[in-house]
Write a structure and sequence with these properties.
This protein is of the alpha/beta class. 38% of the residues lie in helices and 14% in strands. Strand 6 (152-157), helix 8 and strand 7 (189-194) form a beta-alpha-beta unit. The structure holds adenosine-5'-diphosphate (ADP) and magnesium ion.
């Protein structure tokens, strides 16, 4: 049936770089027919010739032109998987890796033993696998084990336009690996695929590719799409607006699928629920078991925890929560992570919408509503590719996973909320969170383009053209908007010591890299550079410190290095469960209800005042007395987690005590994940997540304070002494090594009245004053012990207590007791 193409393929395959083979594929006729309509098929010969003649090839083509599904097949047919090597394809999103492997297996009429996928904890790869789809994080991990990637004959980096950190790093690494392989006589190819034409960051970067790689453009057939802007831009309830607009389209416009873009899982479910209520299509969802409820993943999590507890097994509940990660070598799947963030409850849309906005149910116009986001099961995802039941209209409510990763057939209308949920990195804390922001013009245009795949279409943008004009042109590379200490640690873990020289497609700033390296040396994650020698050599060495054994352990924890350090030290005095709980609570934002919001009326105002009093009382209770009080705000966190778990972590308990229920659930999940991570690094410790932990003993509290000091050492602050009070603004103020201005303990802090001489803090927040958040008291004599790397030692007379020396950036002090270094393999901290 398909002989013209077979022939052209056979004709064009020439040695020497690749054997002249043609591996036949037995496709079903209907599949073959559909393939022939894909624009990329017309370019097969050009693509394969370029691949044969070059080690690096860049392929650009509109979403839906067939890159992801077809290029691996071209390579397979050309024999790239017939020798010892296989074809590897990386995706920034799990959903794409899984779904595309299934699709390609189906198109090729091959079993999933041959066309397989691997995502972090899951996969169906066998020894027979020929085409392997995986997330970019998985390939990065494989490079750690085998730098030359000898299993592969070709690597395809898909969706390179998304500029995920791992994709960027993989391209940098492969730009070195491929020439090494060629030199060794084990030729290898790299194909970079992008949905946009903006590939200069790869092709024009001489550090990356000394000779610019050929760029092949696939022209896609695209029907015109009329773009309709809103007159005004809804700022709050955009998901309500999305709902209204979708209803209108469904009521008034001719047949054709609707694709709705929202930012996260919770929004998707809310809008799906409302649409299903408005245009019921009963039989379908009941029959396939898809009810109207949002997936019970949280309660599922809880159920698993409970079950594991009941069984009293030593094994941990295996919680697939790698998605929480703040670190590389997880998969940079924002959308998937966004799903988790929704649990946080900050979205207004989480709550049921007000009834007056609700459409009247209209069963005469059935709408076949399907959600689409990364966390959705593959079976549910696959539904969007099926034609809707007869007599219904398809409506897919999606996150930006439908923007370029997946192409849904039959879409004529696009409703675009104009926003995207992105990882946001807090430079102060190194904590990552997710924020909903405007998307870029390029993304908005991609979204619009989804409406013109099969016929002319319409895109409804729920924002004004003026707002669109303010969007950035392109989404910037993720690497430029995050601190890089975690990344640097991961690269060192790959034995890339000179991170500055690494060929990043878009490099992070030099200062960011230097700061990261210094912090990691201070934390003991990197070997210390030599302190003597020639200035230039020392300078060089300072920027190419190799990783230490402690660093290797830290690299495997999915939190930023300061917190990873605490985890690495946590096994002392059985403190690990507490350290895990504290780190989890510090990493989840805003666990306390926001009671400072203005009240709408008097009634609410008195209610708020009552709740504030209640929360303050609980905080005092959780902070404890005596020894535990000195752990300060971190004790409050620990107390809140402990008390909440003791009460079964119910919404009622949280509501009564000023805790955010969603945050508490998130902490619980994160504790599970961190426990898994610690157990896999150090199985002999064998921690178990005990939801109900007893409060720490006095000596454990002391140990915890030291561990916190070791992690937050660069966030040390010293109270200003009486004799230093030149300016009244310094009253009750603290000095820090980095800031010239005083910082203060916040009135809500557990240590506000205590005002310890030395404290460490989690972050500084500027409101009316600069306030430290997450404050814990430190004993001055611990500083030379725990933070010796920051210290500059003098005689006891000269330096009675630790002092900041602004000229050296070090802490001046004298040595009070024997030195030790906190390290994973070292003995417990002695009190
Ligand atoms: P690109 O990677 O260039 O965006 P793809 O290779 O993903 O394009 O998609 C090519 C075509 O294959 C699209 O028309 C898409 O609708 C179709 N397709 C992809 N996955 C499936 C699937 N699971 N079922 C049916 N069609 C699919
Ligand atoms: Mg694709």
């Amino acid at each position: 049936k398909t002989n013209t193409r077979e022939k052209s393929c056979q004709d064009s395959i020439k040695p020497p770089s690749q054997p002249a083979v043609f591996i036949p594929v037995d496709r079903l006729p209907e599949i073959q027919e559909a393939r022939l309509r894909l624009p990329v098929l017309a370019e097969e010969q050009v693509i394969m010739e370029a691949v044969r003649e070059n080690s690096f090839v860049v392929l650009c083509g509109e979403t839906g032109s067939g890159k992801t599904t077809q290029v691996p097949q071209f390579l397979y047919e050309a024999g790239y998987a017939s020798g010892s090597g296989i074809i590897g394809v990386t995706e920034p999103r799990r959903v794409a890796a899984v779904s595309m492997s299934h699709r390609v297996a189906k198109e090729m009429n091959l079993s999933t033993r041959l066309v397989s996928y691997q995502i972090r904890y899951e996969g169906n790869v066998t020894s027979d696998t020929k085409i392997k789809f995986m997330t970019d994080g998985v390939l990065l991990k494989e490079i750690q084990k085998d730098f030359l990637l000898q299993r592969y004959s070709v690597i395809i980096i898909d969706e390179a336009h998304e500029r995920s950190v791992y994709t960027d790093i993989l391209i940098g690494l492969l730009s070195r690996i491929v020439p090494l392989r060629n030199k060794k006589g084990l030729p290898m190819k790299l194909i970079v695929m992008s949905a946009t034409l903006r590939v200069e960051d790869f092709t024009e970067n001489r550090k990356l590719f000394p000779v610019p790689p050929p760029v092949i453009k696939v022209e896609a057939r695209q029907f015109p799409v009329s773009v309709h802007f809103n007159k005004r831009t809804p700022l709050d309830d955009y998901s309500g607006e999305v709902f209204q607009k979708t209803c209108k389209i469904h009521r008034m416009l001719p047949p054709g699928g609707i694709l709705v873009f929202l930012t996260g899982q919770a929004e998707v479910h809310t809008v799906c629920r409302r649409l299903r209520r408005a245009f019921p299509y009963r039989r379908g969802h009941v029959a396939n078991g898809e009810g109207e409820e949002a997936p019970a993943d949280t309660s599922e999590e809880i159920r698993r925890f409970k079950k594991a507890k009941q069984k009293k097994t030593a094994s941990l509940p295996r919680i697939d929560l790698d998605n929480y990660s703040a670190l590389p070598v997880d998969e940079g799947d924002e959308d998937r992570q966004a799903g988790i963030d929704d649990e946080e409850g900050s979205d207004l849309e989480l709550d049921d919408p007000p009834e007056d906005n609700e459409e009247k149910a209209d069963p005469s116009l059935p709408l076949y509503v399907l959600p689409l986001y990364s966390l959705l099961s593959p079976e549910q995802q696959a539904k969007v590719f099926q034609p809707p039941p007869p007599g219904t209209r398809l409506c897919v409510v999606a996150t930006n996973v439908a923007e370029t990763s997946l192409t849904i057939p039959g879409i004529k209308y696009v409703v675009d909320c104009g926003r995207v949920k992105k990882r946001f990195y807090d430079r102060v804390t190194g904590v990552s969170s997710f924020m909903v922001n405007w998307t870029s013009q390029a993304s908005a245009n991609q979204r619009a383009g989804r409406a013109g795949r099969t016929e002319p279409g319409h895109c409804y943008r729920l924002y004004s053209s003026a707002v669109f004009g303010e969007f950035s042109l392109f989404s910037e590379a993720e690497i430029t908007r995050r601190p890089v200490e975690d990344l640097v640690l991961q690269m060192k873990d790959l034995n890339i010591d000179k991170v500055v020289n690494f060929p990043f497609p878009t490099p992070p700033s030099a200062e960011a890299l230097v700061a990261a390296e210094q912090l990691l040396v201070s934390l003991g994650a990197l070997e210390e550079p030599p302190r003597s020698g020639r200035v230039k050599e020392m300078e060089q060495a300072r920027l190419s410190c190799p990783i230490s054994p402690l660093g290797r352990a830290m690299a495997s924890f999915p939190v930023s290095p300061r917190y990873a350090k605490m985890l690495a030290l946590g096994k002392q005095q059985d403190c690990l469960p507490y350290v895990i709980a504290v780190v989890a609570a510090m990493t989840v934002r805003e666990i306390f209800e926001d009671l400072d919001r203005p009240a709408a009326n008097e009634d609410e105002s008195s209610k708020l005042a009552q709740r504030r009093a209640r929360l303050a009382q609980m905080r005092r209770l959780w902070a404890g007395q005596g020894a535990s009080l000195l752990l300060g705000d971190l004790m409050v966190l620990l107390g809140a987690v402990g008390a909440c778990e003791f009460a079964g972590c119910t919404p009622k308990f949280c509501e009564e005590n000023g805790l955010r229920y969603k945050a508490m659930l998130e902490i619980r999940r994160l504790r599970g994940q961190l426990t898994n991570a610690v157990n896999s690094v150090c199985p002999e410790v064998g921690v178990f997540v005990d939801c109900k932990m007893a409060p720490p003993t006095e000596s454990q509290v002391v140990c915890l304070r030291q561990i916190v000091l070791a992690g937050l050492g660069d966030h040390l602050a010293r109270r200003v002494q009486q004799e230093e009070l030149l300016d009244p603004k310094w009253r009750n103020g603290y000095k820090t090594p980095l800031l010239d201005e005083p910082v203060y303990i916040h009135p809500s802090s557990a240590l506000f009245k205590t005002l310890p001489q030395f404290v460490v803090y989690q972050e500084v927040l500027e409101t009316t004053k600069m306030y430290m958040k997450g404050v814990s008291a430190v004993e001055p004599e611990w500083v030379p012990q725990v933070l010796s790397q920051y210290c500059h030692f003098g005689s006891p007379l000269e330096t009675p207590a630790p002092w900041f020396c602004h000229s050296t950036g070090r802490i001046k002090c004298h040595c009070t007791s024997t030195f030790f270094r906190c390290g994973w393999q070292l003995p417990a901290v002695e009190m």
